[in-house]
Amino acid sequence: MTLSSASAPTSATPQGPAAIHAAWRAERLAQVTGRTGAAALISYVPVGATETAVDGFPVTVWRVGEEEGVHVRATDPGVALLDASGRTELTPGVDTVLGRLTPAGLPLLEYGTLTIDAFSLDGTDYELRLYDTEAGTVRTLTGIDTHDFDPTWVLTGTFHAGEPDARMPWGFTRASDTGHTKAVPGTITVRVDDQDAELLVFADGPALVLVFADATTGATSYAPGRFLRLDPVPDGAAITLDLNFAFVPPCGFSDFFSCPIPPAQNRLRAAVLAGEKRALRDPANA
C-alpha cells in the first residue's frame, strides 16, 4: 500500500524535538482528513476484465490483460484526471488509462467531492478506491489520541540488508489480501526495553516501513498495530527509530482499507508509550 507521509516534518518547522513533534501531530490530522486522507475512504471496487460501473462516480472501469493500470471511460462531463503533468478533463465516452497509484499520491480521478485512485498491492490485481470529503468518517473524526514527545523512545538500531529485490508473503487486515507479497529490503536489530528484537521492514517507495505491535496494542493503541516510516540507510549502518512518530495505519480511520499486519517477530513485549494511539471520534457529528 502507498502511505501518506507520516514522517517528521523536515522544513519550515519549529525548533526542538517537542515542537517538531507538535507540528507533526497537526499535519497528521490534516492529512487523514484531506481529500484522499485515510478517513475519507468510503468504498473500494475490484477491477477485472469486464467493464463495470462505479456506484456514485460517472465512469466505467476494466483491465486489459496484465497491463499496468486501469482503463476508465467517463459517462458524464466533470471527471478530471490529475497526474504529474497537471489536470485534464476527460471527454465522456473516450477510453483513458488511470495508472497505478505512486508514492507521490498520483494519478487520481476527481468528480465533485469524490476522488478515485487505482491501487495494487503488488501489481497482480487492482482495485479502485473511492474517497469523499463529506464522508461520515471525516465528520466524526475529532482528533488522533497521541502521546506527548518522550526522548526515551528515540532508539538506535542497526539495519541489515537482505537479498536484493527480496519479497515475502505478508498478512493483511483484509483476509483476501493475505499472501500478497511485500518488498522486504532487510531487518533492523534494536533493543526495546529488555528485548533484543530483529524487526522486518518493508519498502514503500524509497522509505522503509516498520509495522509493529506492542503491549498496548488493542488496549490503549490501535489493533492490530502501528506503523513507523524510516529513511533508508546502507547495510550495517545505524538507523534511528523515533517511536514518537509511530502512527495509526489507514485502516484505523476507515474500514475499507486493507493494511499489513505485524509479523510475529515485530510483536514487542514492551508497552511502547509513544506516538499515536488511536482515532478519536464523536458520533454526534455523523
Automatic annotation (TrEMBL):
InterPro entries: DUF1684 (IPR012467). It comes from the Bacteria. This is DUF1684 domain-containing protein.
